[in-house]
Amino acid sequence: MPRAGLTTDRVVAAAADLADEVGFENVTVSALARRFGVKDASLYSHVRNLNDLRTRMAFLAGGEMIDRIATAVAGRAGKDALAAFAGAYRAYALEHPGRYAATQIRVDQALVAESPALRRTAEITYGMLRAYGLTEPDLTDAVRLLRSTFHGYCALEATGGFGAPRDVRRSWDRAIEALHVALTHWPHEEKNDG
Asked: What global pTM score does this model have?
């Protein structure tokens, strides 16, 4: 029987808060149970196991992140949309490190297909890139370029990995300008008719 006051949403939100405080990898069912002042077993009415909890955290954080990105890119196109998208991505990653780490885990593709937040992420990301005239397979390649650039930059910034005296924000802005140039002059893959 579920403990009064505990819901799946409340448990997952508390886990996401805990992740921001102590790191995603340090979130356990036991640590979460201690936060609520209950035994581990009380949480298993709401999540199946640690993997289920982490997957739910990924969906929660992914939804929060895409909501922020969607608001930032609304009514924008091209370089303005790219800069707004990137800025919202970076801000979320730096403000919510544990939640952001949750968005980077590998999730079962069947669950991804069922997630409105992750479908919305794809729609907004691909929509922004279509303004550059990209179609498949270039769209997928461009998404991978953006994600790896944004993630790598945020991961290095979060750990103090940039030691040069140049302002980190200025380097970020230049990286976005470089991505815009790359997307504008994308080397389209030749279609093989044979």
From this structure: 0.91
